[in-house]
């Protein structure tokens, strides 16, 4: 059976990269397969956080999912920490993950920076918890942005190692990454070599789903570009990271290709293109922000939806945890 699992961390506000690399694809995929969409709040604790802000962000991310078009009745939508199986399976999987595998993870190196000894164990072990998130539901497909490819490969390796160790061929399916659409890696607006991230200190590096029209226009106007007009071909575009990023965003937002965008704007100055990109971004994001606001105005209803999702997820998770305990040799009553 096919099943989708994916999630986002409630660290700060969601941005255009989260939307184009993941959320927009989830909305399409929910029609084809059963799906579980999680607000991965335990992951958000791997970096510095403030409890009150975390609480707000959890509800905001849930509201963003629904506002973007995720149906909370058809799919399971919940927050990770309300299903204890994530933490339980995490521990068991840590006992099957060689340190050498984790040492290869590039995201840890980027996030820990130069101060590796001060980085917390949770940040280092984060990919194992991510594997537990997916395997707890025996998910087969994981729609994510390009940056998560390495973590998903690790999840597959851990699943394979577990199955082999307990001679339980096929117990955990090996989850397939689904890296879809035109904008699988949206770059920072300030630096075409860095991915757009929630954790980037610069607000001008990203467009948040909740930015108002003036803020979006300002951020796009300030976005780094080179002095040349837009190129005519995709081949020339690929030599210019910042230009490539803006054209890719335009293509993804309008469900077309970079070649089609260049057919329209190739040879023009960036000032004209940036104006069109700002208008398009506002047209696509403002309805989502409006709906998020409306949903956040009724916290009781949002919490009711999350609780219902957690109950449904909890049933599946409990089944897997019991099966895992039996396989590994733990006694349960
Ligand atoms: P953080 O900086 O806190 O890690 P993030 O922006 O990377 O935040 P996550 O919550 O880690 O966001 O990721 C949620 C989803 O969004 C994942 O599927 C991830 O691959 C995707 N994603 C994140 N950033 C981008 C990006 N710049 N382009 C495309 N997809 C992205
Ligand atoms: Mg991330």
Automatic annotation (TrEMBL):
Q: Which GO terms describe its molecular function?
A: ATP binding; tryptophan-tRNA ligase activity
What CDD domains does this protein's entry cite?
A: TrpRS_core
GO terms for cellular component: cytosol
- A single BP term in Gene Ontology: tryptophanyl-tRNA aminoacylation
Catalysed reaction(s) here are:
tRNA(Trp) + L-tryptophan + ATP = L-tryptophyl-tRNA(Trp) + AMP + diphosphate + H(+)
Motif extent ('KMSKS' region): 195-199
Task: Identify the PANTHER family for this entry.
Answer: TRYPTOPHAN--TRNA LIGASE, MITOCHONDRIAL (PTHR43766:SF1)
Protein purpose:
Catalyzes the attachment of tryptophan to tRNA(Trp).
What is the name listed in the Swiss-Prot or TrEMBL entry for this protein?
A: Tryptophan--tRNA ligase
Please name the source species.
Answer: Niveispirillum cyanobacteriorum
Gene that encodes it? trpS
